[in-house]
Write a structure and sequence with these properties.
Number of domains: 1
Helix content: 10-25%
Oligomer: single chain
Order of helices and strands: HEHEHEHEHEEHEEHEEE
Largest sheet: 7 strands, mixed
Strand order of the largest sheet: 3-2-1-4-5-8-7
CATH architecture: 3-Layer(aba) Sandwich
Strand content: 15-25%
CATH topology: Rossmann fold
Number of helices: 7
CATH class: Alpha Beta
Shape: globular
Radius of gyration: 18 Å
Structural class: alpha/beta
């Protein structure tokens, strides 16, 4: 059984995000374009699953270079996929980055400029995907990091007629209880500060949702993303984690080691 525990970011939290961390072997995965080794983790997963060339949906793709979770799959394995990004300048830059990279000799891409939510039909991920992929319902990878409606968009994806073998989703590391930002929170383009923490959902909440649809948490790329593999593909290949559900806190300041613990504001939806 492969342990995908990933502490590359050096994020040390004595209130560990998942159980039995002390017993886990800590492994660093190569980081090519992503923030905290996500693309190294994904590369290992697809290597074990024997998936060489696949298809992805990348929601929140930025410029498809810095912080990209799929760029490695494109440049090394020739993956195809759909990019979704609300920042038009970022999306244009991403398209140019792909076009100007001589290492990318294969791969077919679609680009969608717009927000994702469940509040408007044209922003629902299922409707966006159907505009580009007709007849295709199973994707090898869904990566969803939009700093807003992660829980609700993921629920919309999973409850519809689409599915994925592997899911990477951004979580809110400031919360350790089972909560999500509401469906009507205001999305923002660009990086969020640690105190502007009203976005996405906690690891326990996202894990509960994923488990309802047969997904297992196999890696936590702290402090940004969770990686799930569907149980039908895992088959005891990867160690499975269970997030700890604890008292409501968030972290103030930029120092990940000496942080002040403070009670959180109201407004979250309990899952």
């Amino acid at each position: 059984m492969i342990n995908l525990d990933n502490h590359r970011s050096g994020f040390v939290d004595k209130h560990c995000i998942y159980k039995d961390t002390v017993e886990s072997k800590i492994t660093d995965f190569e980081n090519y374009y992503s923030q905290n080794g996500e693309d190294g983790v994904l590369e290992k997963i697809f290597e074990v699953l024997n998936i060489t060339k696949g298809t992805f949906v990348n929601a929140g793709c930025d410029d498809i270079h810095d912080h990209s979770n799929v760029r490695r799959l494109i440049s090394k394995r020739g993956w195809d996929g759909l990019f979704i990004e609300p920042n038009g300048d970022m999306l244009t830059r991403g398209r140019e980055n792909l076009e100007n990279d001589d290492r990318i000799t294969d791969g077919e891409f679609e680009f969608h400029h717009g927000f994702l939510s469940v509040n408007k039909d044209d922003e629902r991920i299922t409707n966006v995907i159907s505009d580009y992929y007709i007849g295709e319902t199973l994707f090898d990878l869904l990566t969803l990091h939009i700093d807003s409606y992660e829980y609700w968009v993921l629920e919309d994806f999973l409850s519809g007629h689409y599915d994925a073998k592997v899911i990477l989703v951004g979580y809110n590391f400031s919360r350790s209880d089972s909560v999500s930002a509401p469906k009507d929170c205001i999305p923002k383009i660009g990086h969020k500060s640690i105190t502007d923490n009203f976005y996405s959902a906690s690891a326990p909440a996202l894990n509960k949702l994923a488990k309802q649809y047969g997904f297992q948490l196999v890696s936590v790329c702290k402090p940004n993303n969770l990686v799930f593999v569907h149980e039908s593909y895992n088959d005891n290949l990867f160690k499975v984690y269970e997030p700890l559900e604890q008292t409501t806190y968030y972290w103030e300041g930029d120092d990940f080691v000496n942080r002040k613990r403070t009670k959180i504001v109201d407004g979250w939806v309990t899952i």
